[in-house]
Amino acid sequence: MTRWLDDDEQRTWRAFMATSQLVNEELDRQLQRDSGMPHTYYVVLMKLSEAPDRMLRMSELAMELNSSQSRLSHAVARLEERGWVQRRPCATDRRVSWAFLTDEGFAVLAAAAPGHTEAVRQSFFDRLTPEQVRQLAEICEAVLGKADS
Amino acid sequence: MTRWLDDDEQRTWRAFMATSQLVNEELDRQLQRDSGMPHTYYVVLMKLSEAPDRMLRMSELAMELNSSQSRLSHAVARLEERGWVQRRPCATDRRVSWAFLTDEGFAVLAAAAPGHTEAVRQSFFDRLTPEQVRQLAEICEAVLGKADS
DNA sequence: CCATCTTACTTGAACTCTCAATAAAATGAA
DNA sequence: TTCATTTTATTGAGAGTTCAAGTAAGATGG
Description:
Chain A is mostly helical.
């Protein structure tokens, strides 16, 4: 006894999927073109830059990024090859790796940020009213299960 | 002179990115697990099932899916291997390929649809009020550039 | 103290997507 | 006609993601 989507839901669902795809693709293209990295890597660098001492355990980082450990592991391996991130062993628990944002990684992030932010504005915020921005936060947080509103 | 995101925008942006990722991953996992296909393939079958005679030119299909021709070409190649879609030459323009949804493909789609719909409800609509559903449609359509509201 | 369970992370293979290159047919201009 | 351009679609290589399996080290408990 499937409860199919009604017309409003259909409309919303298709629009949401299309938007999600469009925005992700635009950002990926912009970052790849202008900074030579996919959006996922940008977010990794971003999270690390905000962390104390610019470092985080792999598992914490994965958690904060809503990423699988596997994906993160592969990603950090490639970021390490580029010298943007460094893995450092943990003194107290030898299973743990710390991911550390290098100066070079920080510089790359700093160089990428303005263009990325501009892209986010152009493809997203410039098309919304402040009221819609507020509504969207509540909507997304509801979907994410933040017991908020 | 970068216009950085303010706090409201930050909050919305992170929530939107997280939601987009979460929902996509949940749907991909559900479809992969229960029907052995990624979400992208499901959408291909869906579009074809809605088309007259269950067939569409590759380029039309790509357009409607907001997909690159390359991506679609690869996808249809694999759907064809499974016997779910068939490519048929066009009589009047020999550059054109029609993608045709086979009976088997239709059956697979029909079998996948209830579980998929249930997943969409659980991970999305069940967490939103009707008012939010309406708001979200407007927001997404604004981002997509549908000169609507 | 040692066997077992759990945690943290990595690895490899299979798969999908992107981008650039290619091919082939239609279009259009000289 | 003929040759350049545009349209339609495919292909292959490189890159990223996923899933399942594997490694190593800390925690548990008899």
